[in-house]
Structures are given as structure tokens and as C-alpha cells.
């Protein structure tokens, strides 16, 4: 027994002796996460305290209603409920239409045999990722405005009716989602293309020998090979279902469509930051995160139930 | 015995401490000058102008620093804060406890919020104690501006209001050359103004030739209540009482005033008659598309800041028009919207401007107050506003001051160094008549007659905002962005709605505004007014 323990200790010591540099390398990011991600979490407490950012929250008295004043305030605010609805709507549409887009694009890119053309195409589809939403919103207004937008001018010259891309809630949502796909689909193919290169080429050869057509090969070899990657990314995007970007809806929005474009981050900006109700913003943020974690855990366990690996 | 001794010791210690503290607090002013050098930090707006000087270290800061050191033995250090995000930057500084000793902002709610958190110095006791040391501050601002924000119950004062010396707001502009071309007289009524817009629309070919499709008779932006204020508020009855003006005055664009809706209805009709810029709703803040349309000469009329077409020197709308269409071209201010009693009433702000406050971290309140007195002194603020004769200004025969553009170390980063004269906004040469003449001269390459007209009309028949000291209106807390956004949203939607849906869109928007906090503010203001003023 003694020997066994000794042996175990020896192996641990040996292991550390061998790999301590790797652990040292890890120390920095871990310290970063502890200092910048975990310590600040103490300030979550301010969601339950009176609105005061000049003192640490643990020194402050509790907010009204047993500390739940800000949560009650948020849920009693119609704008918050609209923002919640809009966040879920836009994120679900993004998930439904935006999530498959890079997979499709990656499959298409992968099938390109002419290497140079493939590379040029890849570069072009990556580019929009590097534009900020402010620039894209400027482009969108110039291109898509109902009367003076370039696209509508062309449509009118062709004898068609102009389309109010940005002026009505329905068309605005369509523009919002499409612009999102245009901007990010290319960039998001990177991870799928990387996963595709990891697929054993023998599988393709075997399939080809068996007489599988190209589409069959995509369906039976490439897609199954991508499945773990797809599942992991899907779980992670489900975790963000209540999360909301700020710059994208804020920049693309205009006064005619606020009924669908005001999302949670804009609510936080208007009431919390501009209105200086910091505890309110914290309460809303905490709510978003808790729901996000539930979705993450739910999606993960669902994935596991259906025989996938999940993310932990 | 022992107990008495201990008690005695304790008492002497306390007394000693108290005395010591009192002694430390006694400013060592001898003949109006500190015996030891005091150090204060002062916030300064940073506009990051191209070719500008460092806002915290230049010819003018040197003037103040030198003066403060010689006169009071106070060393001044400036802390630059970006002008266009000043509230956010100030928020960060205050939250971190790093705010300068003398802070300045346009946002009173910010000061109020930090005051509630215990982050702002109450100025009332210092002002009453040192009033005799601050004659220049008092002379410039008077009790009115100094005690503007005094809480009627607690007697606390969180900020001093700077003086809005030149109180101008907006004007309605039309293309003077188009009026001449079409032989239309300057519009004096709403009907005439509308007829003029129709004439612009119907004579597009005469006015713009091949570009006729681009003509926009009247342009506006999503900021409907600012950009159409003269038109809309002309529908507010002249008989509006002071009480009503206060109670319904939370919205600084007077959107809650009675009959406002009827003014918006006119815009809605115009929009549907193709008289208003069609794409205005999709252009957001900071978008220069509309400016470009004006500069290109497509826009017939608009309402905007009182000197809008004349600003920015060679890149002004006016200069662009003159370059493209000759010396006749240009916008001129007009007065086409009389109210129900035939008066061209303009609703102007109260004579207050930026708010100066000391954060709680300020441990030199007297030195900081002396700083304010220093920059409020006529001689000093005159120097800061116009600089050196022959360098940054020259005196005309009639006594008017002509500002000269200057590069290099003596450049002014803001018009008349407004960022350094934080207790006053607007050129004050010490003589009212010369002020007008001087302001008109301040726009290089624009004929003074345009400026003089705009200057006069902008505040003609004005009704000024008044001060009501009622303390904090709790319902207004946190509403300073969300409610104005709601206002802009439903006004924009009302303007572009089909005529038969106007009422429904406007009313539901107003309902939403009121039920989202607007009504609560009206009710609380009403109660406060009745408590203190009836």
C-alpha cells in the first residue's frame, strides 16, 4: 500500500518535472481569468443593492423588496419585455438562418477544385468580418434607403417598385439577418474548413470506390465528420440566446423600426448607462447570464442524450 | 479620580483634534493669497481639433496658470476630457474617484446622480462663507445662476450654473435666391410658407434643371422636435400659463405642451404631399447626408441651429452654395410661423449653460472657487474670449471685435475659447451693441446681414425658461435618454404615417410616452409646483 502511494507520488513528481513549463504557461491565462473574470463577479451583488457605484456593493444597504427592486423594476417595464422579445426573435432568426450559412458555405468552398479561385473566394468572404457595424450601417443606408438608396434607384430604373428595406419592421428584420449573414458567414467557415481537413481522406476514397456521387460524399462523409464541431458551436450559440450585441442593432436601427430593433443591450444602454441606474443594468445582465447558462446546460445535456459528446 | 483624569484627557484630545482640524481647514489666506502653494485640477474639454493645440497646455492655459499662481498662489493642472463623450468620461472619472477638483458638464442629471451617491461637494456652505472673496463670480452670475440648483428643503447646492450669455436657439431658413428666381415674397405665415414649398416642388426644373428629381422643398431629420420647433410650437396657445409650462416642461423640446400634435400634423401632411425629404427617418445622428444635400443646393428650406448654414468657415453650407451657384445663393432666416395671437413666439432656454461642480474628492474648495472667480473676472474672460489684439482679433472702427483665424500656439480650440470660460457661454465684450456686431463679424466669408438677421430672429419675441427650485423630481431619475428617444421615435413615425393613420400613430406613441414615465413626471412636477409656488 505504502509502495503504491509512493509510486503514485513519484509519478506525479515526474509528471510535473516533465511538464511544469506547460503549467507555467497556463498560469498567466488562469490568472487573467481569475482577476478579470472572477473578481469582478463580486460586483454582481450590486444588482441587489441600492444604486451606488462609489462604494463597493458589500458595504451598501440592500435594495427595496428584499434586494429585488431592480429585477421588479425591469420586469415591470414594458420596454424591457419588448426588448426581451426582440432579443429572442432576432437571435432565433440568426440561429435558424445564420447558423447553417457558414456550414453550407464551407461545404461549397471545400468542393472547389481550382485552388487559386478557392483562395480568392475565401479571402473575399472573410473581408466583411473586419468591417465594423457602424461602417456597414452607413453602407446599408446608402444602398438600401427607400428613395435615394442605390439598390432602389436601380430597381426603379428597371421599372420595379422600391422596397423599403429599412423602413418597416418586417423588411428591417430581413435586412438585419441578411447583413449579419453577409458579414459573418465567411469568417465562420474557418472553423468548419479546419474540421473538414481533419477528415480522413481514405473515407472519401472508399466512398468514391463504392460509387458515391459528390452529393452523397458530402452527405455521408463530410457532414458526419463535421457533426461534433457543429454540435459544439450550436450549444455555444444556444448559450447566447439571450445575449445581445449592441453595435449591430444600435447602428442598423432607425426610428421607424424601434419596435423590433430595441434589444436588451439597448435597454441597458438607455435606462442603465445613460439613465445611470447601474444596479438596474447589473440586474438585467445577471438575468441574461443565468438564462444563458440554463440554455447552455440544457443544450449540452440534450446533445449528450442523443449520443453526442457535448462540450464537457 | 482616575475616571475624571481619563475623561479630562479625552476631552482635551478631542478639543485639540477639533482645533487642529479647524486650523487645518482655515485657509491660510493672507491678503487674498495662500501662504503655501495649493494645487487644484480642472476639467477641460478636448475637441481633438485638427491643427489645434493641446487643450491642457497652451497659450491660454499658461495665462490662467500664471495668473492663478501670482494672484492666489494656486497651481492649476488641467485634465482633458473628450468633448463629445464628456458625460461618459466624467462618469468613469467620478466612479473611480479620479475626477478633477473642478468639473464641468452639460448634464445636471449626472451631477444629481453622483450627489445622491455622496460623490459631490455641497457648495452652499463654502459660497456663503467666502462670498466676499468671490466678487467677480457674483458679478457675472448673480444669485440667480449661482443658486439656480439650490434644494429648497435641504439647502444643498451641487452645482453652479454658467451664464448663457448669448441665448440663441434655432431659425427657419429658406433659399433666398430661389425666392427671387420664382418671384415669391418672403413667407410671413404658415400658408405662405406652405405655398412656397409647393412652388419649390412644382418648379423643380426651373430651379435645378437636370437635377430636378433631387429637389427637396423642406428637409428635416429624425430629431423632429428640434428640427421643426418653430413650426410646431407656433401651435402652442399664447395663453400657456407659467404653471403649465413648468409642469409639462420636462421635455426640453416642449413636446408635452398643449396643441403640439397639430403642428406635427402639418408636417405629416407635407410629408405625404412630397414636400419633405423622403428618406430622413433612416439617417441617424451624426450622419452628414442631409448637410451634403444642402451643400449640393437641393434643399429649399429647413429649421436648424440659429447659425447653422453659416458655421464652419470655408466648409459652411453657405460657402459651398456660393461657390457652386454664385454670390446670390444662400439661406436666409425667416419668420413664417405666428401663433394663435399672431406673435412669432420662440421658446428659449433659461439663461443657464454648463454646470460647474466639485466632486467630493476635492480637498481645495476655496482654491477651486477662487479659480472660478479668476476666470469670471471681466479682464480675464475678455482675454480668454478674444485673445491678443492684432493676433487673434482686431478692433473695427465701430468698436466691433473681429476674430482672426490664427494657427500655431495661439490658436483657439473652441470659438471664443468657450472651453476655458466655463462660467460664461457667448462673446461678451462688455458692450451689448458691440457684441452683436462682433458676433456678425465672427463668420468669415459670410455677409454680416445674414448673421445679423439670424441673430435677431432667433430670439425675437422669446419666451424664456424659468427656474423652479423644487428639488429632485424622483420620477425623472433615469429617464433622460429613454423618454427623449421615445419622443423622437413616435414623432418620426407620425410624420411618415399615411394621413388617415396620423391620429392613431401619434396618440398611441404619446400614450406609450406617458405610461412609460411621462405622466408620472407631470404629476410629480404638478405636486411640487403646487407645494412651493401656490
Give me some keywords for this one.
heterodimer; A: 312 residues; mainly alpha; MetI-like fold; 14 helices; 0% strand; B: 534 residues; alpha/beta; D-Maltodextrin-Binding Protein, domain 2; 2 domains; 4-stranded mixed sheet; 16 strands; globular
Could you explain how this protein is built, in words?
- The complex is a heterodimer of chains A (312) and B (534).
- Chain A is an all-alpha fold and 312 residues long.
- Chain A has a domain at 74-131 and 183-305: MetI-like fold (Orthogonal Bundle), CATH 1.10.3720.10.
- Helices cover 71% and strands 0% of the residues of chain A.
- Chain A is built from 14 helices and no strands.
- The longest helix of chain A is centred in the first third of the chain and has 37 residues, at 2-38.
- Chain A is flat.
- The model of chain A has no long low-confidence stretch (mean pLDDT 92).
- Chain B has two domains: 30-164 and 355-425, D-Maltodextrin-Binding Protein, domain 2, CATH 3.40.190; 170-348 and 466-533, Periplasmic binding protein-like II (D-Maltodextrin-Binding Protein, domain 2), CATH 3.40.190.
- A four-stranded mixed β-sheet of chain B has the order 5-12-6-15. A four-stranded mixed β-sheet of chain B has the order 8-9-7-10.
- In chain B, helix 2 (59-72) links the parallel strand 3 (38-46) and strand 4 (74-82).
- In chain B, helix 6 packs across helix 16, helix 13 crosses helix 20 and helix 14 (289-295) packs parallel to helix 15 (317-325).
- In chain B, 44% of the residues are buried.
- At the A-B interface, helix 6 and helix 13 of A face helix 3, helix 4, helix 20 and helix 21 of B.
